[in-house]
Amino acid sequence: MNESEDSLKKAVLFLRNEKLVALKTETVYGLACESGSSKAIKKVYNLKKRPLFNPLIIHVNSIDLAEKISVINDDSRKIMEEFWPGPLTLILTRKKNNLVHKFAVSGLETIAIRIPSSEFVLKLISKLNKPIAAPSANESGYISATDAAHVVDSFGEKVDLIIDSGRTEYGVESTILDMTTNPYEIKRLGVIDYKTIIKKLGKKVKNLNFKEKRPLRPNSPGQMLKHYAPKTPLRLNIDKPNLDDAFLDFGNKNTISHQPTLNLSKSSNLKEAAFNLFYFLRKLDKYSKKRIVVAPIPDQGIGKTINERLKRAAS
């Protein structure tokens, strides 16, 4: 269904009845369920084939609701007021109550929360009057869904309701900032970069280091070493594809006429490249070529996020 008053009512009804609803946020499509329902949360984990130790992001529509499920200090409030609604997830100390079931946070003492900027999702949470848990609407480890068609492609009829709101605005997931550590720590690169967060906080923040060993028990999504991966093997920093490769290009420096080729951004715009990244990877994966090879992407700004996703997809 498209976004409408009717589909909003239906989505609320479905969530209240422990069903699953796929929704567009500004980052990727989420597979939403009512965060207090153990039955619905188990459905999400089963459908995604997601490891039970990998917690879900909880979506709220206000700082007041966030405060009911987490401990908010001056720094976290400052960050919330600056970046919410928007593509930033905070890991905070969890307050235990029936609004969020322990299954949704993998039994951890922490909770990952954000306010998305989709008006539809915010209205839905308001009408539901509860938070929703919403990991990306794709099989665990596969390329994230940035379009309703991707959700259908991944799950078909297994999702009770899919709200088709077109392509997502950013095309990559939210940045995750862990505010339960000292110093605070970026746990996943995303739309909002490290420098922007430091500038607002005026404090040292540890940036994500891809080479560091991944935690055995992550306290947020996006920590698995193999992630965002197409079924076709992926190779990075290749300018000249082989005959049996699918090519993901960037910029206009290449004059080769290889098929199939998709260009993330002919004008070398990194925001456009992020918007197209998962969308184009899914398209190229359909060709079932020997490899998908990716041209070098500048490692700056949101380019760092693109490269981090590609490294995990290629691991």
Topology:
Blueprint: H1 5-16, E1 21-24, E2 29-34, H2 38-48, E3 57-59, H3 63-69, H4 74-83, E4 88-93, E5 110-114, H5 119-128, E6 132-133, H6 148-155, E7 161-162, E8 175-178, E9 184-188, H7 194-201, E10 205-206, E11 234-235, E12 245-249, E13 261-263, H8 270-285, E14 291-294, H9 302-314
Parallel strand pairs: 1-7, 3-5, 4-8, 9-10, 11-14, 12-13, 12-14
Antiparallel strand pairs: 1-2, 2-6, 3-6, 4-5, 8-9
Helix pairs in contact: 1-5, 8-9
Q: Please, could you describe this protein's structure?
A:
By secondary structure, the protein is an alpha/beta fold. It has two domains: 5-206, DHBP synthase, CATH 3.90.870.10; 234-314, 3-Layer(aba) Sandwich (Rossmann fold). The chain has nine helices and 14 strands. The chain has helices at 5-16, 38-48, 63-69, 74-83, 119-128, 148-155, 194-201, 270-285, 302-314; strands at 21-24, 29-34, 57-59, 88-93, 110-114, 132-133, 161-162, 175-178, 184-188, 205-206, 234-235, 245-249, 261-263, 291-294. The strands form two sheets. The protein has a ten-stranded mixed β-sheet, with helices on both faces. A four-stranded parallel β-sheet has the order 11-14-12-13. A hairpin with a 4-residue loop joins strand 1 and strand 2. Helix 1 (5-16) crosses helix 5 (119-128) and helix 8 runs parallel beside helix 9. The radius of gyration is 19 Å and the shape is globular. The relative contact order is 0.15.
